[in-house]
Amino acid sequence: MDFPFPEYNLQYMLPEIFLFVWALVVISFDLLSKRNNGSTTGYLTLFGIAIAGLLLGLVGNGKGFGKMFINDNVAVFFKVIFLGAAFMAVGSSFGVMQKKIVNHRGEFYALLLMSTTGMMFLSSSQELLSIYLGLELTTIPLFAMAAFYKDDKLSVESGIKYFIIGAFSSALMVYGMSFLYGLTGSTDLAQMKVAFFKTHLQFGDMGIVMILALIMLAAGIGFKLALPPFHQWAPDVYEGAPTPVAAFLSVGSKGAGLIAFAKIFVDGLYAYHSPDMAPNDWGMLIGILAIAAMVLGNVLAIRQTNIKRMLAYSSIAQAGYIMIGMVALSASGIASVGFYLFIYLFANMGAFAAVAVFEDMTGSCQIKSYAGLARTSPFFSAVMAVFLLSLAGIPPLAGFLAKYYVFASVVDVAQRSADSSWMYWMVGIGLLTTVFALFYYANVIKVMFFSPETSPYKVEAPLPAKAVLAIGVIGVLLFGLYPEPILQFATGISSSLHFMP
User: What are residue 73's phi and psi, to 5 degrees?
Assistant: First the structure.
């Protein structure tokens, strides 16, 4: 019997192959230089990320390994976000490398590059097993990076917690995938979708098996997105991990979870949103998780005195806002999700970069340590305020438009379908919790600008960190005033993910 071999088309995988090889180059350089060139190793990593981005623009769209690897609009969009998050995380790490990670700099940067490679492979995966492998390649390096301060009990504890919960969630997700394979006879997402359409399976026809599959997949991916009740790891890990790692987790891990969710639930299980099928069967489940994330994240963030824990709970709430647009399951909904995540890259990575700079200088992550900082470091304080106000959704910053487009897409769907009227509650709770968010973001700004004390610190950032802060501010301001390029870029995703009009 002749077995057909897939067309490998490795040219479409050049960015991923290059980034993985470059991780080995970074380790080798660090070893050969006897670990004496920390800044050079960092610049070498930034150079590799930039080259990977250039290759991504050159290879174009296409398929490799049969249909398992597809470079399409949705893959390119998320790869840009992942490379941007990696670039900004590395740029904000130079201070950490000078003071806390004197040895093993090469390993640190190599792990970050390998995790980014996993995210990029995941973006192009079109099959359940390759999606799982991409998620594991994304997550396993992050376990080690979270515990990279091996002499710090808090960092080691965060790594252990992240590993245990991550392993458990991966097991749940694989078990859910096995149920989908049993129901459809395929791990290919396109064939799964065809199987659902051909048989016109109603939700009740598959009984407990399909219910378990949905719950397990939602739990596994909910861990990546830090959606309640799978969020417990986030505050402790963000607090204990090196700040650049926490920043990368806040954007990269969410992006990886989001693309995995879109591919499995939207592409593979899209049949449940056909007019011929039961309406929005998994939509309510995800909607409940999104509401829980917005309420829990914003309420608990108010009580925090550590700014990294505050941003951790903030990221939980932001995941809830992002998932609102995904539940809409429309072209405008996915465009709003893409725009939100793109803007979140600038605002959240910028905020964490500012926290990293301040922590490197003072050794403190307490909000009270920022008291009176505007008097000694007015420019730094203004930059930090811009990021926080964007995360809160204050116009004319880009964070306002991100929330507006997400809410508008859901309202549009709710208006057109009586079965989706419950989405109004989701939007109402989202608007209400935005007020809570403004309170704790504004509290940091109040401490910096209106505290009667004068800060003893004058913040000086390394050049790469300054570049990261500048990129973040420009992105938040520019796309708040002129969002059309990113919206058009995000709208192209709907041609790869099959949404209702």
Answer: -60, -45
Contact predicate 87/109, CB 8 Å: no
Q: Could you read off the pLDDT of 411-451 as tens digits, one per residue?
A: 888 887 776 778 888 889 999 999 889 999 999 999 999 88
pLDDT digits (tens, 9 = 90+) for 23-74: 999 999 888 887 666 688 889 999 999 999 999 888 877 777 767 778 888 8
- The encoded tokens of residue 407 equal 């809410």
Measured CA to CA, the distance from residue 367 to residue 241 in angstroms comes to: 18
Whose CA is closest to 407, among 390, 425, 388?
A: 425
144, amino acid identity: A
The residue assigned the tokens 């290759």 is 55
Q: What count of other Cβ atoms lies within 10 Å of the Cβ of residue 352?
A: 31
In three-state form (DSSP H/G/I as H, E/B as E, the rest C), the secondary structure along 187-251 is CEHHHHHHHHHHHCCCHHHHHHHHHHHHHHHHHHHHHHHCCCCCCCHHHHHHHHCCHHHHHHHHH
Q: Say how far apart CA 474 and CA 488 lie, in whole Å.
A: 19
Q: In the 8-state DSSP scheme, what is residue 62?
A: E
Res 54: pLDDT = 93
**Coil, helix or strand for 64?**
strand
Three-state DSSP string of 328-370: HCEHHHHHHHHHHHHHHHHHHHHHHHHHHHHHHHHCCCEHHHH
Taking only the tens place, the pLDDT of each residue in 87-96 is 999 999 888 7
List the chain residues with pLDDT less than 50: 1, 203, 271-280, 500-501
What angle, 0 to 180 degrees and rounded to 10, lies between the N-to-C axes of helices 207-225 and 254-261? 160
For the entire predicted model, the pTM comes to 0.91
Strand partners, 70: 63
Number of Cβ atoms within 10 Å of the Cβ of 50: 12
Token pair in block for residue 435: 């007020």
- What single-letter DSSP state applies at residue 79? H
DSSP three-state, residue 337: helix
Q: What is the DSSP letter of 460?
A: -
Residue tagged 């078990």 (tokens): 175
The single residue listed with the structure tokens 């939100």 is 340
- Cα–Cα distances (Å) from 143 to 115, 140, 148, 493, 500, in that order, read 10, 5, 9, 30, 38
| Residue 240 · residue 306 · CB < 8 Å | no
Residue 451 φ then ψ, to 5°? -70, 140
Q: What is the average pLDDT score of the chain? A: 84
CA pair distance 486, 341, nearest whole angstrom: 11
Spatial CA neighbour of 23 closest among 141, 122, 103: 141
